[in-house]
Aminotransferase PigE
Amino acid sequence: MPAPLPSVHEILTTRRGEEMVLNDRVLNPQLGRIVRTLGFDRQWVAGEGAHLIDDRGDRYLDLLCGYGVFAVGRNHPDVIAALEDVMAARTPNLPQLGVTLLAGVLAEALVERAPASIGAMVPANSGTEAVEAAIKLSRATTGRDRILFAEHAFHGLTLGSLSLNGNKEFRDGFGPLLADCRAVPFGDLDALERELAGGGVAALIVEPVQGKGVNLAPAGYLRGAQERCHAAGALLVCDEVQTGIGRTGRLFALEHWDVEPDMITVAKALSGGFVPIGGVLVSRHVMGRVFDGMERGVRHGSTFGTNDLAAAAGLATLRVLEREGLVEHAARMGELLLELTRPLVDRYEIVREVRGLGLMWAIELGRPGGAASRSLFKAVERAQPGLIAQLVTVPLFHEHRILCQVAGHGMNVVKALPALVVEEAEIRRFAAALEEVVAAAERLPSAMASFGWRMARQSVAARR
């Protein structure tokens, strides 16, 4: 018989330090290998605002941000208070054959802040579940099967969302995926028009800014996609799971291009960093076509989709964003970050591009100019594609206490998603640290190559 489980308080106080052992034994040992290979195996004991804190009391600027979850920062007191209010109220949560207050108020708040095309919300529990719902709603609304998505897109990892994932490394081994899902080049209106001309398209589902690589939609692309989809009787769905809720300096990224889609998927930051949440903001037309009679009133739903804790977290997050002016702050800090880092393109041969929108930022690296350096670069890339980007992220972590990520498999793009509460001083610290690391890479190609080979060997060993 297993031993009786202790309280959470006892677990947190008596079993601290066992995190990696438990992960390797009963969770995902390959993740543990990745973390150890990069040297990111810290024992995290606290989170505050834009920072993670380890067991030695060292503060790390967190530019990974839980993949964009912690928009209002870690452990924001207002979100904690909202959750405590719900638990203290002992609300009549999830009656299922009945409705409750908080989910309705959250839906109301989001609809009021969304483009005029949006009239309702279909609740979910996560981003990938919201995308799954959008696929279903698109097909039910139009009576068509085909779903278009962009190359290099990331819409989630459950089977339906994976069918719209433009990254081979995520899809391999999980087929057959949903039929009638087809990729089109991101930003290419002519390619989109050709696919629409083939008929039977229910929707184009697209990220305004692609999370994998931080690729921005070209000017006019989303408006053009909306016009072409509607002319062909198809829907436009904007996946704002990562870009939404203030990340790009607008509440929804689509506002930068004055788009009025048929659906918007939301999740991540809406959680306040505490309770999983997702949803699809939909037009009245979609709502009326899908739920078109009493017998169809429960044809789509989610057991925990309207739970009070998630709704409270979402409402508190919106309140914090507006009271603290965090959406406008994200726009200002994003402009500053680009201003400080775009000059690296001219200063360093290995920097190909710096791009971003609000506090969604990336730097792309490429081959250096010298023949010897190019040869070393190519050799490291052959050993492990995309490894050069880790030559930036690893020194940032170890030498500057800054946690960030490579923006996708096999690509030399480093990505940053700061919390929207990040202070100007931290943006400047990151920019200075980044230049120091990039400059070191150019000054010491052989040392960097040695580091790359070591990382490649460790990575190969980790796959065995």
Observations:
- The CA atoms of residues 127 and 373 lie 42 Å apart.
